[in-house]
Amino acid sequence: MTPEQLNAEFGIAEHLVFCDGPGGLVQARLACPWGAAVVSTYAGQVLSYVPAGEAQDLLFVSEQAAYQDGKAIKGGMPVCWPWFGPDPQGLGRPQHGFVRNRQWQVTGSDRSAGGAVRLVLAVTDTDETRQLWPSAFALRIEVTLGQALQVELITENHSDAAVEIGQALHTYFKVGDVNRARVVGLEGVTYIDKLDGGVEKVQNGTVTVSGPLDRIYLEPGQELVLEDPVFERAIRIRSNGSRSAVVWNPWVEQAAAMGDFGDLEYLQMLCVETTNAGPDRVSIAPGGAYRLGVDIRAERT
Ligand SMILES: O=P(O)(O)OC[C@H]1O[C@H](O)[C@H](O)[C@@H](O)[C@@H]1O
Hints:
single chain, mainly beta, Beta-galactosidase, Chain A, domain 5, 3 helices, glucose-6-phosphate 1-epimerase activity, isomerase
């Protein structure tokens, strides 16, 4: 649908407006008294969240990001689904599943009496998705902009067998200087170190970044805090439906190797992801549904 058609059907004056974004991909711009957000209808991906009074976006998007059908947009909050990371069956299917690089449909919008604005996007199975993954499904993302940004990813299993999925709200947070940022809430938590052959280690103290990092934390607390002394803020990340969290920074070499990421941009971002990753997988009964969610807010420090 064109932005004009979407505005006629789902737009909310001054609060939800659809427009053409980079690469001609349609974006939704949400605004409420507590902040503003941008959501790409392509990939069902939040690209920006700026709470009122914050000078800096909470989300990082690469200057080199591709906005092109079939490609993933590097930054914001990509949706990894129905698997996280490499193809779990080794069949050569794309990393992080197949919904972060396709168009989603707008299926709903509303504004609550309290003033929060909500946008709903969805993907359902087609002949093409069934080639990649045989199950019938409806996947929905609900983005609610209010006093915080709340994102929920809802999987409905429409097939007549149970399905097992992995997934992530793969959030790229923007930081003033990753060398000075730290993640609080993972102290003493066991993690799988993907950069050290997948061995399990225990987090000693808060998470700081001084080199490449790619870790799946198992059974983390519900709330993590990303402290950023440069931007003088703390980002509170509250997840639900998740029993793992991924922390990732590509650092120098991986940054240089990625075509859609600037060589020095690793200094300005840190991924703290709300996941069902590694051994944290979710089984959904026939006709059942599962919700994975995250709530993000910033505090001045
Ligand atoms: O480059 P992408 O396919 O978007 O993946 C980016 C990163 O996503 C996650 O954080 C994984 O744990 C990393 O292993 C991966 O490098």
